[in-house]
Specification:
Elements (H helix, E strand, L loop, with lengths): L4 E3 L16 E4 L6 E3 L4 E10 L5 E6 L2 H7 L1 E3 L4 E3 L6 E8 L5 E3 L4 E9 L28
Antiparallel strand pairs: 1-4, 2-10, 3-9, 4-8, 5-7, 5-10, 6-8
EC number: 3.6.1.23
Protein name: Deoxyuridine 5'-triphosphate nucleotidohydrolase
GO molecular function, one term: dUTP diphosphatase activity
């Protein structure tokens, strides 16, 4: 699949780090480093502008290494970039650790996964089909 992209950053395009990776790493495009204090969030620019095909979305997800090593995640995870959005891709990072974290220019801050999606047309009904699970949720499976 080919996706049109404008790169106004000083960095390479998002890329897969291994042959079978689902997500491409996205880099911060900063004039100066951004310090995230504990529980602080910041919208980090990437300098990238995407033209996602209709019927697809780009999902912005946390990088597992940043989450594990530094407690850095995304506030809205996964974030969705819709096919009709043409603004800059920005990543909403949050520091969930007890320590400050410094985001450097060029640092890999998120993953980008492009995925197909369906468009739903709701069908209003009075009843839903029965299942073995029924209305059980929030930890109800596997218990009796």
């Amino acid at each position: 699949m080919q996706v049109p992209i404008i790169n106004r950053s000083r960095h390479e395009l998002p890329s897969y780090q291994t042959a079978h990776a689902a997500g491409m790493d996205v880099r911060a495009n900063l004039e100066e480093a951004v310090t995230l204090k504990p529980l602080q969030r910041a919208l980090i620019p990437t300098g990238l502008f995407l033209e996602i095909p209709v019927g697809y979305e780009a999902q912005v997800r946390p990088r597992s290494g940043l989450a594990y090593k530094h407690g850095i995640g995304l506030v809205n995870s996964p974030g969705t970039i819709d096919a009709d959005y043409r603004g800059e891709l920005k990543v909403l990072l949050v520091n969930l650790s007890a320590d400050e974290f410094v985001v450097q220019d060029g640092e890999r801050i998120a993953q980008l996964v492009v995925a197909r999606h369906e468009t739903v047309e709701w069908q209003a009904v009075e009843e839903l089909t029965e299942t073995g699970r029924g209305a059980g949720g929030y930890g109800s499976t596997g218990t009796k």
